[in-house]
Amino acid sequence: MERIKIKKLAEEIGVSPERLLMLAQEDYDYGCRRNGNVVAKDLSRKPILMFQSNQFLKAFKRRIFISRDENFPKDYLVILNRIEDFIAGRYSKRYLPLDNSKQLEVIFDAFNDLADSINFFMSVVAPERIKYLAFKDPLTDAYNRHFLLEHIRFLSNYNDYFPVGVIFIDMDDLKKINDMLGHKVGDIYLTKVVEAIRNSTRNSDKVFRIGGDEFVVLVPRADREILERIMDRIYRQIDYINRVEEFNPPLSVSMGYSIWSSPEIPFTKALEKADLSMYRRKKEE
After folding, report:
1. Could you tell me which residue ranges the GGDEF domain spans (predicted)?
2. Residue-number span of the structural domain to which 199 is assigned
3. Mean pLDDT by 10 residues, the chain (285 residues)
4. What angle do CA 89, 121, 77 make, to 5 degrees?
5. 86 lies in a domain?
6. Is residue 182 in a domain?
7. Count of domains forming the chain
């Protein structure tokens, strides 16, 4: 029933039901006030959104009624309608003044510049930002586990990338560092691990944070010699970071690798081999 009412309200305003619900939720989150009304915070979500949706409709209608009662000049009505377009999210259309008024021309230039800016943000910037948030670990800026799965699917469609090297990296003693020095310091150690990896790999190599202290590097067209050289560079970078940062305890990682030789072989097997290789090396140290 609520869905039908919200759809009807949305049609009256001229927005999608999803857009209206989003606006209603935002209005509620920012204090639940519109036209002097307040919504109790202990209500369930559906009544809150129904109330807020009605408030939006009333606010839109109220402005239209006032403009008619007060006999707004036509120019004012055009500007008011343009503002309502922005509020409702219908900002893609560019408008031209209805006469040769220089003042209106300036105002509509501003409206059109705003529309162009919003359209650019929504079509270019926002999708890239959403993609970034979906695929990146916010702390280290490494790719996350979700993008690892996407990248595996991508690689599996192109034999030219094979064999793919899989380096498994585990930061040593993260729990100990967090307990001794706090999570903020632990976070610094983690970001330095990714810094060491990035300084030791190519742009075509992808770095993923797959757990709290676990990282994976995928290296296209790799062999054992290439992977050994990368790991050696990472160890040297770690030593350099310890000298510069004077970490106590020092930053330390354990690493192992495997070769994902063909897309016909499940990636999970190559990952397990790299993980086992890392644990064997850790026991030897």
Report:
1. 162-285
2. 145-284
3. 61 65 58 46 53 62 66 70 64 60 72 74 64 78 88 89 95 90 92 94 91 93 95 95 91 95 93 92 75
4. 35
5. yes
6. yes
7. 2
Which residue in the block uniquely carries the two structure tokens 């992977």? Answer: 227
Q: Which two tokens stand for residue 202?
A: 């190519």
Q: What is the rounded distance in angstroms from the CA atom of residue 88 to the CA atom of residue 78? A: 15
pTM to 2 decimal places? 0.59
Question: Tokens 């040769």 belong to which residue?
Answer: 100
- Asked whether residue 140 is domain-assigned, the answer is no
Pair 55, 19: CB distance under 8 Å? no
Kindly report the number of other CB atoms within 10 A of residue 147's CB atom: 18
How is residue 14 written in tokens? 């001229």
Query: Over the stretch 93-122, which tens digit does the pLDDT of each residue have?
Result: 566 655 666 667 777 777 777 777 776 766
Please indicate, yes or no, whether residues 83 and 154 belong to a single structural domain of this protein: no
Element (H, E) at 170: strand 164-171
- Order across the sheet with 164-171: list the strands: 206-209, 214-219, 164-171, 253-260
